[in-house]
Amino acid sequence: MQITRASDYAVRVMIHLAGLPPGSSVRQSELSKATDVSGHFLSKVLQQLVHSRLIRSQRGAGGGYALAVPAKSVSLLDVVEAIEGPVRLNQCIEEGPSCDRKEWCPAHQVWAEAQAAIVTVLGAASMASLASQANGDLARAYRFHEKPVWIAGVPKKEQSGSRRHGH
pTM for this structure? Predict the structure, then answer.
């Protein structure tokens, strides 16, 4: 599973907006520069965030984009799901008759645990806490993890070969 570029950009936008003084709004051109996202693609991301009611848009001289809800009440999970829809590692995780094998499949419990872990971790990261981290020197370029982040329980040599840089 890999989060799409649109979700990554939406997270950048939300962190930037969460770091502004309350009540501030930012024009799309300023958001584009601050988040390093092209204007055309950013427009689509902003539309989805407005549609999900995480941000609001106001036209006119004093207009721009602003958070529609307090940053502390918006999680990383909220932002990803605003762009991607519900996070689902496998169709068998869905409620109801999504898979005939889920009652006896040995992988079902593993999928369910992995799903729960992703939801827990993403749900615990608020835009307010990420924005407060962004006030440090590293955050200006949205490079929170200068060193690789290792996942507990996975051997480091397996992770180092699959580590992606840039996000």
Answer: 0.76
